[in-house]
Design brief:
Layout lengths: L2 H17 L7 H14 L6 E3 L13 H10 L2 E9 L1 H7 L12 H5 L2 E9 L7 E2 L2 E3 L2 E10 L3 E3 L2 E13 L11 E11 L2 E4 H4 L1
Antiparallel strand pairs: 1-5, 2-3, 4-5, 6-8, 7-8, 8-9, 9-10
Amino acid sequence: MSNKSVISTLIISIFFTACTDQKEANNQNFTNALNEYVKTGKHQLNCFHVGYNFPLIKNTFNEKSIEKSKQQGFLVESKAQVANTLLTQIKGSNPYGIGWRPPKEQEEKKYTEKTVYNLNSKAKKYYKDGYVCLGKAKINEVISFTEPITISSYKLTNVKFSYTIEDLPNWVNIEDNIKTKNIELYLKDNKWEHKSSSF
């Protein structure tokens, strides 16, 4: 490529960059803001909720989430002797009324074998505060956004976007790695950004 062609290309590139208004509410500006947000590392886009206070025991409320975490490779299943929760309660106050006692066979059986779920040994180093965070988030596209509104001295919009998580270890099994999320972006210092970026 000749020097004249290189110079012409640079001039055109600079021209279009200058003509792009970073304050406009459009897909390109929001994609830029989302990429900057990912660079801060203050997000949880690459985090998977697995729970607290291990070992976990299935119940009506957590059954689906435990099974999902197990399939993803974060939890392992085993058998364990678990203390009878009812007996633990009885040692303190009696929630069932004065004079009430559990059946004799239940009093004698202080421990019961149950299926429990613990963190996979490989997942432990990625675990913090109920989440396993690993891999890197990559923004795919802005799907939609709301008409910006003015709040105090800022403009605010809600952006829906899709992203994938890359560089996952081979022991992690994520069936659908294309995810969507809604997030709020603010217009500050003449450009759009996520609140955590600099506010």
